[in-house]
Amino acid sequence: MIADSYNRIHDYLRVAITDNCNFRCSYCMPQEDISFLPHNKLMSVDEIVAISTTFVKMGVKKIRLTGGEPLVRTDGAEIIKRLSTLPVELTLTSNGFLIDRFIDVFADSDIRSINISLDTLQPEKFLKLTRRDAFNKVWNNILLLLNKGIYVKLNVVAMKGINDDEINDFVSITKDLPLHVRFIEFMPFDGNYWNKDKVLPASDILQNVEESFSFIKIKDEINDTAKKFKPLNHEGTFAIITTMSQPFCNTCNRIRLTADGKVKNCLFSSGEVDLLKAFRNGDDITGMIQMHFAEKHKERGGQFPSNYEYTDTARINNRSMIKIGG
C-alpha cells in the first residue's frame, strides 16, 4: 500500500511512455521545435512492465498510459498488450489521431475506456490550437471508439478567449452521443503562458450551461477529480475538473511516472525520484516510492496559494505538461 502522511492511499498509476507528440498544443508543448528525450533516457518496454508490476504489488489497481501522445511510440502496441496481463484496469489518454491503427490492440487488451483530448469542435480553431489540420481524423476516430463499445471521455481544457464560446456546443454533442465531456480548468506549467485571466472557473462554466440546458448533479466516486452532471434527456454527460478553483487534493490517489522514469507524488510537485536509475542499478525501488509519498504536500505540490488568482508562475518549479505526462 502506498500512503502519505495525510492517510491518502495511492492506487492509480499514470505512466508516460513518451514525451513526444504529433500535435503542438500551446498549453502543453509551447514550442514547435521542442527537443525530446533520447531513446536511452526513456524507459524500455521491459522497464515499463517491471516498474509497473512493482507498483501493482504495492496496491495499484488502475494504470493509465499517457505521453506526450502514447500511440506515437513505435512499440506502443507491445506495451499495451503486456500491461494488459497485469491485474489492473488499463486505459490511456490520447489526442485521437492514431486510434484507428490501434483499435484491434484495444480489443485484444480489454481496453474499455479511453480519454481523448479535444479542445474545440471547429476544424479551423483545431488547426490553430494544435498546429495540425487533423480535426476530421480525430472526430472520426472518436466515433470509431463509440461504435466499438469503448467508453469515451473528452478532455477539454477550457480557456477564456480561446474556447469559452464552445462550452454549450460540447454539451450539445452529448444529446445523441454517449460521450462524457470533461471541462478542465487551465493549469500552469513551465512554458505554457498561463495567467489567471485565462482560467474559466467551474462557476462560470456551470452558469454558461444553465442558460441552455437543464441538468442534474450525479454522484461522484470518492477519488474522482471531476464533478459530474447529466443534462436531461441526453445520452451523455459532462463534468468539470476544478483543479484551480476547487482543488480535490484531499482524495487524491494518483501516482505519476514520467517517460524518463521519475516518480512524482503530485502533478504540481517540484520533487521527483529517479526510479529508472535505481532500477537499472539493481536497487529496490519499493522503499524509494514509499518515502517519496510520505513527503507529499497536502495540496497542489505546496506551490500554489489557496486562491489561484494570486499564483505567481515565476515561483513555480515544475516541468512542462508534456515532460510530466498527462
General description of the model:
The chain is an alpha/beta fold. It has a single domain (12-324), classed as TIM Barrel, CATH 3.20.20. Helix content is 26%, strand content 18%. It has 10 helices and 12 strands. Strand 8 (226-231) and strand 9 form a beta hairpin. Helix 1 packs parallel to helix 2. The longest helix is centred in the N-terminal third of the chain and has 13 residues, at 45-57.
Structural class: alpha/beta
Give the class-level CATH name: Alpha Beta
The CATH homologous superfamily is called Aldolase class I
Radius of gyration: 19 Å
Spans where pLDDT lies below 50 across 5 or more residues: none
Question: Overall mean pLDDT score?
Answer: 91
Strand content: 15-25%
Helicity, as a percent range? 25-40%
- Secondary structure tally: strands: 12
The CATH architecture can be given as Alpha-Beta Barrel
